[in-house]
Known about the structure:
The complex is a heterodimer.
Chain A: E1 8-13, H1 16-24, E2 33-36, E3 44-47, H2 49-53, H3 62-68, E4 73-76, H4 79-93, E5 100-104, E6 107-111, H5 122-137, E7 141-146, H6 149-157, E8 164-166, H7 172-176, H8 189-197, H9 203-207, H10 211-218, H11 220-229, E9 248-259, H12 262-282, E10 285-296, E11 301-312, H13 315-328, E12 335-343, E13 346-347, H14 356-375
Parallel strand pairs in A: 2-4, 7-8
Antiparallel strand pairs in A: 1-6, 1-7, 2-3, 5-6, 9-12, 10-11, 10-12, 10-13
Chain B: E1 2-6, H1 7-17, E2 32-38, E3 41-47, E4 51-63, E5 65-70, H2 71-79, E6 85-90, E7 95-100, E8 104-109, E9 126-131, H3 132-140, E10 157-162, E11 166-171, E12 175-181, E13 190-195, H4 196-205, E14 211-216, E15 220-224, E16 228-233, E17 252-257, H5 258-269, E18 280-285, E19 288-295, E20 299-306, E21 314-318, H6 320-329, E22 334-339, E23 346-350, E24 354-358
Antiparallel strand pairs in B: 1-4, 1-6, 2-3, 2-5, 3-4, 4-16, 6-7, 7-8, 9-14, 10-11, 10-13, 11-12, 12-24, 14-15, 15-16, 17-22, 18-19, 18-21, 19-20, 22-23, 23-24
Helix pairs in contact in B: 1-2, 5-6
Amino acid sequence: MNQPPRTIIHLDMNAFFAAVEQAANPSLRDLPIAVTGARHRTVILTASYAAKRAGIKTGDLLHEARSRCPSLRLVPADPDKYIHTSQAIMSLLKNFTPLVEVASIDEAFLDVTHSLHLFPSIETLAQIIKHEIKSHFNLTCSLGVAPNKLLAKLAAEQQKPDGLVIVTPNDLPHWLAPIPLSSLCGIGPHITAFFHQRGIHTCGDLQRLPLPFLQRHFGALGLWLHNAAFGRDNSPVIPTEDAPNPKSVGHSMTLERNAESREDVLRYLLQLSEMVGRRLRAHHLTASTVAVTIRFASFHTITTRQTFHTDLSQSNHIYHCASTIWKRMPMLEPVRLVGLSVSSLTPNAQQLPLFPSEQRRMRLALAQDLVNDRFGDYALFPATLLLRNNRTRIIAPAWRPEGLRNTC
Amino acid sequence: MKFQCATAALRDAVQLIAPVCPVRTTLAVLSNVHVVAENGNIQLTGTDLDVAVKTSVVADVAKGGATTIPVRLLLDVLRRLNAETIQVSVDENNVATLRAGDKTQCSLRGMAAMDFPKFPQFEGSDKVELAAKDLSEMLRSTSYAVSRDETRYVLNGVCFSFGERFDVVATDGRRLAKYTTTAIKREEPRQLIVPTKSINMLQQMLAADGTVTLRYTTNQLEITTPRATMVTRLIDGHYPNYMQVIPKTCQVAVELSRKAFLDAIGLATVVTEKTKQAVVRLAFERNKLTVTAQTADIGEVNEVLDVKYAAEPMEIAFNPTFLTDVCQNVEADELVMELTNATSPAVVRAGEHFLCVIMPMRV
């Protein structure tokens, strides 16, 4: 039997956070709105299409955005709402193929190679997916269909919002040639600048460069660039449940207002330790390396990491290590972002502690996790965090609905 | 300064001191060994300001004096000399010239002796005496359990606890090793936490017969052995109440041959040593102990040992390192393992003086 040609769909939800807010609140529909992080200060996380037309983009500071678009409505992020919606969309996608890789909260890859024969055509399948999402959630998405992940993602980028771009092997050469290099997923500003200096701007230009030249300049990456220029990519669609364990678990938060003292930063580290510890325990992992990231008001960012001779999973231990690291870091100016991540993860066949005080702490953490699992995050938390607004979370780009990279 | 001595004796003395001397330091002179020649012997001292070690070598002193010599260079030179005796002379610029026979000569640039910190003096403090081999056994059977976790600094040392008896205790919060002797009693209870580096040093110094004298103040301990004298700073803090974690009762006690048990655990670790968190399972049934370890992608090991066991079957899991550490560092041929259940601490006893409490793993 002939192997059917590989067919991958990339789904990209359009202006996801903003669209969810508009779907949930009809009074916001068609208006220029932007979803922000913490209430008092942060950056624009997502702008609706109306706002995008007014020049608002992700990462803008609030005052910049307001001056550019005075009618802009700012909506504080509600991560729970987005997670709920994302999970529902992802489970809907599994109706079409079991091979669904959740790439982020609003992106997914579907390998429909073996389920395509159930539908009259790929175009019909894509339209059904778009229709299902629209009718269930009142949300639009852009779909890219291609023989591999690289091209599918590229195709989805080409038409926004509410797009559908199908690239077949036959029209690949003339479709790909004029695409700018920077559109390819995996080619960042540095590589783009390197090629621009040499007059290489499009995939077609890159195709003409000999492979040895690329390998000389980029090493192993050279081969990847060469293949990417021709739209070749073999990476498989890995369903989220099969994804390998991550190498680190971390959270960061942009503070509501700059932390002026070292003690203020410590309080945020305590909160981050609680979040990281909870995640580690939920996945039965222990860590031994701790990294603290500090971004100052000037956006100057420093990270310090240290490996400890111990297995960390209790929040208080993680906090202790994080505060030890923070003591060694300079506080050059007020702090606007604090990040904490742990790595060197090992599956935790739980070693029980010897001393009663630690046994109590272990039981307390377990009880706290159970309460929070049942009644929601921050149902039970250290009193030190009582005066802080704990609901100002931001969703990281690496978010997954299941698994370690959850909300942050 | 000028003296002549046996090369081997000088080499052994320098080798003993070298581990104390820091490689990188803000005080350059600490990388040197302090040498004083007087009255028919030379005295060598090394320190990192936390620990100081002093030893002496019999020598034929032609001219007394003091200097410091880079300890690692000196040791490297001494290791390469075959001559039985060595002549050392030091000029006023602290350049030490070593001569072995007529044909070999080596000069090392040292630093002035006056820059070297003074060796701490102990006057009128408490004093305990015991046999070097007893203290050596106490340290060997416990020191492996010391915590390396820098965040729990009080556990980064071995606790010497004086009172109605003398306990030597080490723990890392998951296992605890204790050696007790009732031959030493002090009216005034006292706990000294001796840093790991000093314990390692001390174990080198104890490699000889004779008597050891311990003298201590509130924050320092001086130990004199036939080979050398060491003064160490003590870890400042309260050692946890270790007696409360030693179970008073148990459900069942099993006798184990140390050698057979060590071999079985050793075999099990073949499939676990590549994993970062290894687990070995012990399944006790009637007159039978099955030791099992398995790692996905690597393999599985089973070994059955004959034991006297008449209680209900029980399965318990441990970090294999905790078991091998005990088996490798005690001398008794028979061990007794006391168990209660799969999540309660197990106690391994060897002879009447030693026990190790080991927390199981929940699997």
